[in-house]
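Quick one, tokens below:
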């Protein structure tokens, strides 16, 4: 039995009366087809321009007027507009305070993060000076803090390690040279002292400790680091030229969050040797962390207890100050600026190390010499460019820009201004390329520094200039005084800084409640990054994210629509109980554009929600064959055929399952040469189709022909201009007359009801009797 909108059962008479009422409402209205609508309102199509026309239009716009040149200069150098509107009285105070605060943070963070890139701490100071100065001229964000970033430095360090390992591997295979890496020698036969594994590439008694490796390896590291930096900047610049800023949209928030959490595991692991003073091999590739921790636990007995105590004291001081003072909601509003605990810890540890001679007396590793002055431009940035580093450079450039764009847009929205993704790509590209010639590693954006810069009152990039002045003083005069800074102190700063990245695990519950798909993207990104190397983990996460997106596009939802009484609205009957199905009409909506990826899924859902015409056609053919056999058995008495096989006919219909499986049967199927189905028309609601490709059109032609073969008519509604133009190009109207496309679903419904009512003399009948008889 049928039910009404409130779930109450209707008897047969009430059901037929309701159907008559619905049809009566619809037959009282007029309708208009898409063709008539276009003619009445003078529709004019716009064919795509030809290549010659595009080039002509572009050249026509290129007028070398003064205004055009001025606009171009302003777009390349956004700081001109910012400085024109700069209010010295209101802005200078906040910029000076923010610049000094950020400059103080740059010193310890730059030195610490340089160790992640397997470079000397001084290169971290260069990274905090040159990129900030260059970004002032080319960047459009007023609040981000450019410079050293833990994720970018770790990815750079991973690329450098692979470059060094490739050289050592080729040296082993050639058997011509002997490469000295720290205290480990790879001899001519390719054998080496120490532990082996297929993932191990190089082992050193002090691993990546830059204070103990040879000058030759330090130079190689610097060459590879600058080459990767140069190439990542070139990639960013090319992306800007070709307006490819949208590529970062493939990195979803869940992917970035999971990836950065996985990277934090690598960052922490890279600092364990400095925190404990233990030795381990250097590994790259799959299970890198597994083999690293194997070495750490194997050599834990050689740990330096003075180093451990100093690291614990530093971590406790950094965490407690940050957690209970700088982030205290009661103290924060009263503080002029956050307590520069990183700088305080570095200065105190440096003084203590110098006073009691930690390096000589307790074998504590220290930073060693820091040269004064600025580096001379050199060609290290192009000395090691090869196909080996291209994947790492591309991944580095994309990740750096993704971190920036997420932070930059957030701060821009908060302070009501815009940042142009392509302009920022150019700013980072130019800055990174120039920095590669001054031995400054690939710059990125530090989230913590950016938040601090905005919170303490920074207004514009002038804050960056102030921090550059402070860094310049350090580079020209103060740098050598940090010679005795213990490495474990810098590692402590890194470990505390990545605490927030680890805490992203707590967001998993929220992500699961919002979207289970994002949850699995996060899990895959994190686990892949932890188990593999950083670049492999990122590649795996991006591939998984794209596959998930393609699956969601390939298998969209579909539904049947019902009519809202008294309106021209049609909604999903699965969610709205008061929606009424139009008698003898199926309204099908496919909730995605129709193209080659989902064409078969479209056909499957269409048959599932309506009826499979091929199955019905086969059943009809079987029925006709058996009916012909029964007719031969009919006896003829007095020239008339006696219908003695009626029970057999009824049993045959039930056996072949071609009778309607619902109690809705208002169409007189005996008047049509078709099967016993409870509808005569299918309407496609195309409102969600932004485009249809040639494969999609082929599927539409096929299903229209299949339904036509069993007497079911197909109509279209809400077709966008692009879809109709595709129909025109593919000669779709040879299969479906253009008059069967309607402006709205309501128009198509009215047409189908009125046309069928007129054809059958406005007599809506039922196999049990007419409405009057009921």
């Amino acid at each position: 039995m049928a039910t009404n909108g409130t779930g109450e059962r209707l008897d047969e008479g009430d059901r037929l009366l309701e159907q008559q009422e619905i049809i009566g409402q619809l037959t009282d209205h007029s309708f208009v087809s898409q063709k008539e609508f276009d003619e009445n309102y003078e529709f004019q199509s716009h064919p795509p321009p030809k290549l010659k026309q595009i080039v002509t239009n572009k050249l026509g716009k290129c007028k070398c007027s003064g205004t055009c040149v001025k606009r171009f200069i302003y777009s390349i150098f956004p700081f001109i507009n910012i400085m024109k509107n700069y209010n010295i009285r209101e802005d200078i105070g906040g910029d000076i305070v923010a610049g000094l605060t950020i400059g103080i943070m740059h010193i310890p963070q730059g030195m610490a993060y340089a160790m992640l890139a397997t470079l000397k701490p001084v290169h971290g100071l260069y990274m905090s000076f040159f990129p900030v100065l260059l970004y002032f001229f080319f960047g459009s964000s007023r609040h981000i803090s450019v410079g050293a970033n833990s994720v970018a430095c770790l990815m750079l360090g991973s690329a450098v390690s692979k470059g060094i390992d490739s050289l050592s591997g080729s040296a082993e295979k050639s058997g011509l040279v002997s490469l000295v890496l720290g205290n480990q020698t790879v001899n001519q036969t390719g054998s080496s002292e120490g532990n082996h594994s297929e993932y191990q590439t190089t082992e050193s008694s002090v691993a990546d400790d830059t204070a103990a490796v040879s000058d030759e390896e330090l130079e190689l590291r610097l060459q590879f680091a600058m080459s990767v930096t140069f190439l990542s900047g070139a990639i960013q610049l090319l992306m800007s030229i070709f307006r490819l800023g949208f590529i970062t949209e493939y990195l979803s928030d869940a992917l970035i969050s999971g990836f950065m959490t996985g990277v934090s595991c690598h960052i922490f692991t890279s600092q364990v040797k400095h925190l404990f003073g233990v030795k381990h091999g250097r590994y790259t590739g799959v299970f890198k962390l597994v083999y690293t921790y194997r070495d750490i636990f194997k050599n834990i007995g050689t740990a330096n207890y003075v180093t451990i105590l100093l690291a614990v004291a530093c971590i406790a001081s950094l965490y407690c100050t940050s957690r209970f003072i700088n982030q205290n909601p009661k103290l924060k509003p009263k503080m002029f600026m956050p307590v520069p605990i990183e700088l305080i810890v570095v200065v105190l540890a440096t003084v203590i190390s110098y006073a009691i001679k930690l390096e000589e007396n307790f074998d504590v590793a220290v930073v060693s010499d820091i040269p004064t002055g600025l580096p001379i431009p050199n060609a290290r940035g192009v000395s090691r460019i090869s196909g080996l580093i291209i994947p790492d450079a591309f991944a580095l450039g994309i990740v750096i820009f993704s971190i920036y764009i997420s932070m930059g847009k957030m701060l821009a929205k908060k302070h009501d201004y815009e940042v142009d993704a392509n302009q920022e790509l150019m700013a980072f590209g130019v800055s990174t390329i120039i920095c590669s010639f001054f031995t400054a590693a690939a710059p990125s954006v530090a989230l913590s520094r950016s938040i601090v810069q905005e919170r303490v009152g920074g207004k514009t990039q002038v804050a960056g200039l102030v921090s550059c002045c402070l860094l310049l003083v350090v580079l020209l005069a103060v740098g050598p005084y940090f010679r005795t800074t213990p490495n474990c102190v810098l590692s402590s700063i890194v470990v505390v800084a990545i605490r927030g990245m680890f805490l992203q695990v707590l967001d998993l519950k929220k992500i699961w409640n919002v979207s289970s798909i994002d949850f699995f993207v996060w899990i895959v990104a994190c686990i892949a990054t932890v188990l593999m190397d950083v670049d492999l983990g990122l590649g795996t996460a991006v591939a998984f994210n794209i596959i998930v997106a393609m699956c969601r596009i390939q298998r969209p939802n579909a539904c049947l629509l019902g009519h809202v009484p008294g309106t021209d609205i049609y909604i999903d009957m699965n969610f709205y109980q008061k929606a009424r199905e139009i008698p003898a009409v199926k309204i099908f909506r496919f909730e995605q554009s129709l193209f080659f990826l989902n064409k078969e899924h479209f056909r499957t859902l269409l048959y599932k929600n309506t009826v499979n015409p091929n199955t019905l056609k086969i059943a009809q053919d079987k029925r006709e064959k058996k009916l012909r056999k029964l007719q031969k058995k009919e006896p003829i008495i007095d020239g008339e055929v006696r219908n003695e096989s009626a029970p057999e006919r009824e049993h045959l219909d039930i056996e072949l399952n071609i009778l309607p499986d619902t109690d809705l049967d208002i169409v007189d199927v005996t008047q049509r040469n078709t099967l016993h189905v409870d509808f005569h028309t299918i309407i496609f609601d195309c409102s969600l189709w932004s485009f249809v490709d040639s494969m999609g059109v082929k599927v539409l032609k096929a299903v229209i022909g299949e339904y036509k073969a069993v007497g079911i008519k197909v109509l279209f509604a809400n077709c966008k201009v692009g879809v109709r133009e595709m129909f025109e190009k593919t000669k779709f109207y040879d299969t479906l007359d253009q008059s069967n496309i309607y402006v709205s679903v309501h128009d198509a419904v009215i047409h189908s009801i009125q046309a069928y009512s007129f054809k059958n003399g406005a007599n809506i009948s039922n196999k049990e009797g007419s409405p009057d008889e009921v």
